[in-house]
Design goal:
The protein folds into three domains: about 200 residues, no CATH class; about 100 residues, Thrombin, subunit H, CATH 2.40.10.220; about 80 residues. About 35% of the residues lie in helices and about 25% in strands. The chain has eleven helices and 19 strands. The strands form four sheets. Strands 7-8-9-12-11-10 form a six-stranded antiparallel β-barrel. The longest helix has about 30 residues.
């Protein structure tokens, strides 16, 4: 971090706070990415300006952060709710958002470091320490969230900044001091609550959530933060711990730490009971209560899924595995996406498949419910929670169908993934849509997840838009006509819908 030890007058455009405010008032209002890019430029120029006092640098950081909130909210909504962002748009928005929160983090943590080292102007920061610390931890939480959206690794330096910022608040006895985090926002916060937001997001297994679900999880954490607990001694309702002297993420008590004064224990506290009450309210009314501010309107089913996920990971008792894992080391041929899986099962079926969707992974453990695998040097950005994969173990001839449930990217470019197996005997089928007595002439490809013979219920995977409520799906096998009557969509992904069906077999003649 740049620190000031000279006394020369600066000719920087933001040397005067009134002029800085005027410049920020000229940010492009119709270009959110452009506005954030300009703010990021100002953050960098301030960070490298040697003549600024620590208090002036902090004041500018607060102003820049406040000016960025409106375009940042707009871009977050666009990133998370636009159905079909192009890859270029997605990268541009993500880059602007992550770049802004990274710049804000460096600015606020730099101000705290300036205070600790006694840089010129540091004494004038005393009155603003609670606010600067809240903003530092808020920026760190947001930066980590945007990394999780890409399933990217969280640099240990971010954890060093987080524990360092909170430790300063504890040592100066202002960790529980309430401040208005932003002008015009009535809800106050504390350094302790902001630290808990950072910790609880890490404890919520974001690598198992979709980007929109990560956003909802962070919003729920913000809603429940006043109920969370942070203690200096372990308790039954604080199942996680973190070491303020280390640069490591929090861990569960399943990995008991050596006793140390720098350990802090945390948990959901009364939030677990409130989650149960909220779940009951949503199920009974079929709507999300207006009192729950999630930053937008979302389907109750999606909110319930995130609530259930959070409750499971915040509970004092750790999640139990349904199936025993066995360690292995074997190659997997992987075809990804609906078209890749379809062509693996019936080569030539998908006209969009060109062989570029085939990859080689390494299975590291297997169970009756799925497997964990290493993905060497992830290619492209298709790999995300909810993605469909067809898997063929080395030396085998059959294909399995699985769904990616967990992703953890490494600094090396590799990724660790968890895949749930949803079918061990999938088959490609050509389906006709039946509306009343009318049967379509054209066929639609699908993937049947269970053998047709003998089963009353099954699931079929389709491209989005093929399934229409009230319409049946028909295919032929071994001279018999099989009718699938959809009962509902079990799961949706970027390029597929998994539809639950009842099955009726019509014998010939």
């Amino acid at each position: 971090m740049a620190r000031f030890f000279g006394g020369a007058k600066s000719d920087h455009p933001m040397a005067d706070l009134k002029e800085a405010q005027r410049l920020l008032g000229e940010l492009p209002s119709g270009d959110a990415v452009g506005a954030l890019d300009e703010i990021n430029h100002w953050f960098e120029s301030i960070r490298t300006e040697q003549t600024f006092r620590a208090d002036h640098r902090a004041a500018l950081a607060l102003m820049l952060d406040e000016a960025a909130q409106a375009p940042a909210r707009k871009l977050a909504r666009e990133y998370l709710t636009t159905p079909r962002l192009s890859k270029q748009q997605e990268h541009r928005i993500w880059g602007a958002m992550h770049g802004f929160w990274r710049a804000a983090t460096l600015a606020f943590v730099g101000a705290l470091e300036a205070f600790v080292t006694g840089a010129k102007g540091a004494d004038d920061l005393k009155g603003r320490l609670p606010l600067v610390t809240v903003r530092a931890l808020r920026a760190l939480a947001a930066q980590m969230k945007w990394l999780h959206m890409r399933y990217a690794p969280v640099d240990p330096q971010l954890w060093r900044m987080a524990v360092g910022s909170y430790s300063l608040a504890e040592s100066r006895r202002y960790a529980k001091a309430s401040v208005a985090a932003y002008p015009g926002v009535p809800v106050e916060s504390t350094a302790e609550q902001e630290f808990l937001r950072v910790l609880m997001l890490a404890a919520s297994s974001p690598e198992s959530l979709l980007p929109l679900e990560i956003e909802l999880c962070e919003r729920l954490i913000g809603h429940f933060t006043p109920r969370f607990l942070l203690t200096a001694a372990p308790r039954g309702d604080t199942p996680y711990w973190i070491d303020l002297a280390a640069s490591s993420p929090p861990a569960r008590h399943a990995r008991p730490p050596l006793e140390a004064k720098t350990l802090r224990y945390f948990g959901a506290g009364d939030a677990l009971a409130e989650i149960e009450t909220l779940e009951r309210a949503i199920r009974s009314s079929g709507a999300v209560p207006a009192s729950l501010n999630l930053g937008g309107a979302y389907p109750p089913e999606r909110v319930l899924r995130v609530l259930e996920h959070a409750a499971a990971h915040w509970a004092p008792a750790p999640l139990e595995r349904k199936h025993v894992r066995h360690r292995v080391k074997s190659r997997l041929t992987v075809a990804w996406g609906f078209d890749g899986a379809l062509d693996a099962l019936a080569p030539g079926t998908s006209l969009d498949f060109d062989g570029s969707r085939l990859e080689s992974w390494i299975a590291e453990n297997v169970s009756a419910g799925g497997m964990g695998a290493l993905v060497p040097q992830v290619k492209g950005d298709w790999l995300r929670v909810g993605a469909i994969v067809a898997l063929q173990p080395e030396g085998g001839e059959n294909w399995l169908i699985g769904v990616v449930r967990r992703i953890s990217r490494q600094q090396t470019g590799d990724a660790q993934v968890g895949v749930q197996t949803i079918s061990r005997q999938p088959s490609a089928v050509e389906l006709r849509v039946q509306a009343g007595d009318t049967l379509s002439l054209d066929t639609e490809p699908g993937i049947l997840l269970a053998p047709a013979a003998g089963a009353i219920e099954t699931e079929v995977m389709l491209r989005p838009g093929v399934h229409v409520t009230g319409h049946n799906l028909v295919f032929e096998r071994a001279g018999r006509q099989i009718v699938l009557s959809p009962a509902g969509v079990a799961e949706r992904g970027a390029d597929y819908e998994l539809v639950r069906c009842r099955q009726l077999v019509r014998e010939p003649g």
